[in-house]
Design goal:
Length: about 550
């Protein structure tokens, strides 16, 4: 045996192997009756929290402003309001736009429901009305299409000012948090648009932001003024959340609503829209794209009234309007719970994390709420994204637990869903994560025998020159396979009773996820030295890294 030093040289090649891993997997819908209103259409709806009233206008010919209690019952009406449409509530003052050539805004005291004044305002188009910058804003269109954005002052002079901005079938959103901002959407456009204006100077308003292919009849602004909720056609017809004033999208909700409202504390979003099964209402916790509850608001063929949804003053009720399509059909008022049933108590734990790929862990979902509904569903989702996949559905045991053994091949989150019961709403647990550590393999290739775990190779001069025949060879790969992943290695030799590192390096796994590595030598000094090699791989977005076991080998005569 010789102690002469030697320098191994590494040649890396790739072999092809294809491996495909496929990963993939709600709340109940409750029908809610409503009250048909004595109207032949729908104009606008505002909530008077101080007096616990709703004000609702109908079709132009209805000539009335209905007043309803918060339980939906009648509380009176304001008659003689031909062509009444858009409304604005400012404290105890209700402004009612009268369109269709009336060219008036009527003013009412909300406590006495009496008319206190009228002034000229050429409100047209959709007859929508909004207050911003201390003025009332509207379109002056006479044909419900393009018109100028116009405002009128609220002082005794009631001066009209034309901004010169021409838009199509306008609807508005405003926020007390930013009283000089006016959000304008062009409804019935294809696609609709949204603009944010600073209206401090009504004769020369400043556009702060523009959004294309977002908007529609449903607009709502969070109480803090920071977020606009409206339809996002760019993102497959969902409800989008956009920052104000710059309209950067920060979230989506799956309901493509024609009406949207935000609760007074900003914690809930109410959405109405029309589906193939009829009008639908949904309630979301802000920032959570899974609805807390959904409601059927009518039969197939019925519609949700555009912009016909609002919360009451404390968020405990959500008002929604639906209708049977057609001229002269009565809108239906639905009073929904804004604060729905309490959630149940559902948790999820896992027995171990991290685990090595191929090993099992136990996921346990626990229902701590006493209920006749003892069924839980466990879902999983890749940490790197993708759809939610149903793992199992089953009845909990006497301890309230549902167990399932899982073998994830990548970092995964798990959670449980309980459908709720008569006294609790559907509940989704917090998520737990199981990290998966790859396994590293490096079997020796070639050689003539294995003794005491050491792979043996005959010395050959052919190893020192290309194509390096008869050299020690190794096949390195991770489980699961990681095509394009970097495999680092350390090569050591036993010299004078001590393991000495001779070489370190790295190679990239090929398309099949495997790396062929050849160790070649330049002379017979290698003979009789026991050697070993191991490989490692760093963590990536979906796996923890790992280092494989040593693979021992020796070159003999």
């Amino acid at each position: 045996m010789s102690d002469r030093p030697f320098v191994p040289v590494v040649v890396v090649a790739f072999a092809m192997l294809v491996s495909l891993l496929l990963f993939g997997g709600g709340g109940a819908s409750a029908a809610v009756p409503g009250t048909a209103l004595p109207l032949t259409g729908f104009g606008d709806m505002v909530v008077d929290g101080a007096n616990h009233h709703l004000f609702i206008t109908g079709a132009p010919a209805d000539g009335v402003v209905l007043v309803r209690n918060e339980d939906g019952s009648a509380a009176g009406s304001i008659t003689g309001e031909t062509d009444a449409g858009g409304m604005v509530l400012d404290g105890s003052t209700l402004y009612v736009a009268r369109c269709g050539g009336q060219n008036l805004i009527d003013v009412f005291d909300t406590t006495t429901l009496t008319l206190t004044g009228s002034f000229t305002a050429h409100v047209g188009g959709t007859c929508a009305l909004a207050e911003a910058g201390g003025r009332l804003w509207y379109s002056n269109s006479t044909d419900r299409q393009f018109g100028h954005l116009v405002s009128v002052s609220l002082d005794a002079g009631h001066t009209e000012v034309d901004s010169g901005v021409s838009l199509y079938q306008m609807r508005f959103a405003t926020s007390p948090a930013d009283p000089d901002w006016l959000v304008v959407t062009e409804t019935q456009q294809s696609p609709p648009t949204v603009r944010v204006f600073d209206v401090t100077n009504p004769a020369s308003i400043q556009q702060l932001a523009y959004g294309w292919s977002i908007g529609g009849d449903g607009l709502a602004i969070s109480p803090d003024g920071g977020t606009l909720y409206t339809a996002d056609l760019n993102n497959t017809y969902v409800l989008g959340a956009f920052t104000l004033p710059n309209l950067t999208e920060v979230g989506t909700y799956p309901m493509a609503g024609s009406g949207v409202a935000v609760s007074p504390n900003g914690g809930r979003i109410g959405v109405t829209g029309t589906t193939g099964n009829g009008p639908l209402g949904e309630l979301y916790d802000t920032g959570d794209s899974t609805p807390v509850i959904d409601w059927a608001l009518g039969a197939s063929g019925d519609d949700a009234e555009p912009h016909g949804v609002a919360f009451n003053e404390d968020g405990s009720k959500l008002f929604a309007l639906s209708a049977v399509p057609g001229i002269g059909s009565a809108p239906v008022l639905h009073v929904l719970p804004g604060d729905v049933l309490p959630a149940g108590s559902v948790t999820v734990t896992r027995s171990a994390s991290p685990i090595v790929n191929g090993k099992a862990a136990k996921v346990t979902a626990h229902l701590a709420t006493a209920s006749s509904n003892t069924t839980l569903s466990i879902y999983r989702k890749l940490v790197t994204g993708g759809p939610a996949i149903l793992v199992t559905t089953g009845t909990v045991n006497a301890s309230g637990n549902l167990d399932v053994s899982v073998k994830p091949s990548a970092d995964m989150t798990y959670w449980a869903v309980w459908a709720g019961d008569a006294t609790h709403r559907s509940t989704t647990s917090a998520k737990v994560r199981i990290n998966v550590r790859v396994q590293i393999h490096s079997p020796a290739q070639g050689g003539y025998a294995t003794r005491s775990g050491i792979r043996l190779y005959h010395y050959t001069a052919k190893c020192s020159r290309a194509p390096h025949l008869g050299c020690p060879r190794f096949l390195a790969y991770a489980s699961p396979l990681r095509p394009g992943g970097t495999l680092s290695f350390t090569l050591q030799a036993r010299v004078s009773g001590t393991w000495r590192t001779l070489l370190t390096g790295a190679g990239v796994a090929g398309a099949g996820g495997k790396l062929h590595l050849t160790i070649f030598y330049r002379g017979s000094g290698v003979i009789g030295h026991r050697q070993r090699i191991h490989f490692s791989m760093r963590a990536d977005a979906g796996h923890l890294g790992n280092t494989g076991p040593w693979t021992s080998f020796e070159v003999t005569r």
